[in-house]
Amino acid sequence: MSTISKAAPATAPHGGHVADENYLNCSRGFLSWILTLDHKRIGVMYTVSVMVSFLVGGIFALLVRTELLTPGPTITESAETYNHWFTLHGAIMVFLVIIPSIPAALGNFVLPIMLGAKDVAFPRLNLFSYYLWIAGAVLAVTSLLMGGFDTGWTFYTPYSTTTTAGGVIPVVVGVFILGFSSIFTGMNFLVTIHKLRPPGMTWFRMPLFLWALYATALMQVLATPVLAITLALLVVERTLNIGIFNPDMGGDPVLFQHFFWFYSHPAVYIMIVPAMGIISELIAVHSHRHIFGYKFIAFSSIAIAIFSFVVWGHHMFLSGQSGLMNVMFSFISFSVGIPSAVKIFNWLSTLYKGTISLNTPMLYALSFLFLFTIGGLTGMHLATLSTDVHLHDTYFVVAHFHYVMMGSALIAMIGGLHHWWPKITGRMYEEKLGMIACVLVFIGFNVTFFTQFMLGSQGMPRRYYDYAPEFQTYHIVSTIGSYIMAVGFFMTAGYLLHSLFHGRKAPANPWGGRSLEWQCASPPPIFNFDTTPAVGDCYDFSIVKWDPKEQGYYIDRSADPEIAKAEAERGHTHL
Amino acid sequence: MSHDQAHATAGAPQGDDGHEHVGHVVNPKILFATAFALLALTGATLFFHSIDAEDLNIWIALGIAFVKASLVGAFFMHLVWDRPFNLLVFVGCTLLVALMMAFCLMDAAQYRPTQFLGNPPAAQAVLDKDAPGAPIAAQKQITGE
Amino acid sequence: MGTTAASHDPSQGHQHGGGHERAHHRFQAHHFETMSQQFDSAKLGMWLFLATEVLFFGGLFVVYAVLRARFPEVFKYASLYLDTQMGGINTCVLILSSLTMAMAVYFAQTNKKGPMLACLWLTLAGAFGFMIIKYFEYTHKIHEHLVWGPGFYVPSHDRAGEALSADLALHPDAEHQPADVVAAAVGEPTQVPVKAIQLAVAGPATEASAIAPAATGPRNLSFAVTEPSAAAEGDVIPAEDPTAHLADAQMPPNTHLFFAIYYAMTGLHGVHVVVGIFVISWLIWRGMKGHFNASYYTPVDLVGLYWHIVDLVWIFLFPLFYLID
I need a surface site. Which of A434, A484, C244, C271 has the fewest CB within 10 A? Predict the structure, then answer.
């Protein structure tokens, strides 16, 4: 074990030892980053890229909201420009931000460390999928230069095949490529979890975030190819006019919607399931209490993954889909509520009588519980056939999916970013500012989108540039909410960036976590672990002790007979 | 399961460089037999094509194709000797295609010429009066539905 | 940074190898404990990739099923334009190349470099053979305007038709024009050599269609041929008249859709064969450098799996397109 003498053993009992060499300073220079095969650096690059896209998508959101302050023209005279804005907002947020945010950005960093592996199974494929993401993003920008696109993020035919906007083909090709980026990430994670678990890390020892990532990867691998073929057919339809989706030529536009939602409904769960995984971690760690119903949470992730493939038709109740299908899809959509509710109840039970640390990650987790419950329950309204006729394509739908995709998925992502920030950067952020920003985001979010439930139920259709004057009050309130939210996010960006240079050095285990990533230094050494620590129950916090000297926690390994035994055996083989 | 290497290495010879042997070596006789069966089945499918069995023809052809696909998967692709999970992946994704096909076919079988049956008489009266030029005003009520 | 540095990390292979020291294989990555673990991981990864391929093609199979369910008469009719002989030969070519690929894996596993390379060369030859036959099929059909979309109805050697065809390509909406405009652009029906052709369409072909059978082609674009009884023996489509298919009164509406899905599916399959040509060539190159042996033949195995799935897709495409009664 030559490496042991070089770097301090990361599994030192007090865990607070900061190794002098870590993944951030082991090599320098631009090339050492862009050609890296290290999952941690790739994760960091993803995080930066996703956050930049989040800024761009957010700016388009603010433009859309500002335009809607008054009926008719506000900041642009052209309704077409408005169409471009909301399409860009949607496409960027869905394909460039939310889908890769948790699996590719945080997951890439955390998954191998949590698992106790040195890297993901295919490091080169991992880097390749990052560059596919970059290529997709570049194509999206290209499409802007070529005249943009106004199809909505769903690219419905026949509008997408006939619109004169010049940027449709580049953006469709871009999304096609982003799809493969997502597929390769998913493949990598599935193989890593299957084949690179160290001894002792059985399936039911895995932290729930890994279960969630596993379920997500399953959906990424199985759903995304269908999006790829759909988009390929769309490009061929637009360029060569093959007529498969064109009703004038005997084709079938509803079939396009079937294809699109066969991917895109699982895609919604690709966004939410890893978010649920993060919440499982945040709630258990920050309430210092064993997660309640581990197996139920684990299997409900898999159940959601399976359900995700049989509910796509609930996006198509008014598309001309047959009545039989409507009834079937409506019924199955209701049943998605079961695994989701299982998770909510388990998280609540975990909080009950826990020792709750009310810090920023916990605040985000609590926001998630609140917002996801609203988002999920309003989904029931939309899954009901009769109410959906009224609510379809109104702001009610917009509010519903923002509660789920932003209020849940992105909030969990930001919460997770705070949770693992000390591990990723080795620095602590300013806790007070974090809590203020979280409260701002939470309030801003609800002001923005709860208003839209009311707008929608009163009949304001989505994607409209102009509206009747009686809706204006709601629109003004909603826009003000979006500004509050923007302040919260800019504040977050500010103190996080500030902490990079001026933050307190992070201990190895600032929150008292038990999973393996808290048992290596912050930031982690190049190969994560010099010797993989023995795996115990990752939610048993009884042996996690506070070390006032390090201002962090450590795991009293001798207190766990199972770990002590495993380490004794290991020591016999190794040292 | 990830460290259960007994499966991969059991009874396998050592490689020439002293490393362990990985994977399963298939007897070439089995491979040749598979290829022969595939060619024979291709002949069979051509034969059944030449006799007219009405609607049965497509099912015969698909059945033969399914058998051929199973042969390729089982022997050429080593699924018989491979880890069961790989088989599960393969069968699982095929089932998913079948699921999508079933739903889409079920839906396509029930398409109606139009979902919008026209404006109800009361609404039509209002449209004719207030917005005679609007496209929706031209959608007269379809009778007989 | 690090794979080169990483691959020398000596901390591998201690824990699970039964305690004995194993030499590190040249192609073993740093984060795998054993070659076996690496092989299994690669293989699972490949199977997951194949699953995505199945779903990728699966989408097209679903399009096929929906179209065929809606227009059974189109499929029965248009299938007759495909050359069963060429399709059958191609099936055999792919099956045999699959066999040679499987044999290449066998020879790699048994450390027989020469036979392995020979098998890979044969597989490559099969891939090229398939593409050459496909090339002849495609060019023949394109010459006869048996293509997708508006091109199906427009004779390109006709100057007016060329203009129209270009127009249609630029503005898909153009085909919304009234049929008489299009017909005028194409030419007077009487100028088309009427050489009705024999097509063994059994029974009333259009009975299952939702769309009423038409004596003329879709959108009245074809040329009302009045004498199907004057059928000529011989080639289905006379070489001197690439638009003869339009002259058939029995052609059901929307026949172009058959060719749309035919080119989509066989085209995507062809792309996969071309990719196969590149990866097999890469295998030959690495094989000649002596990279493969019994303990490391993962690339041969994985490319083999890929090649078999290409074969497998064709196994379904052949009866679905060529053998419709």
Answer: C271
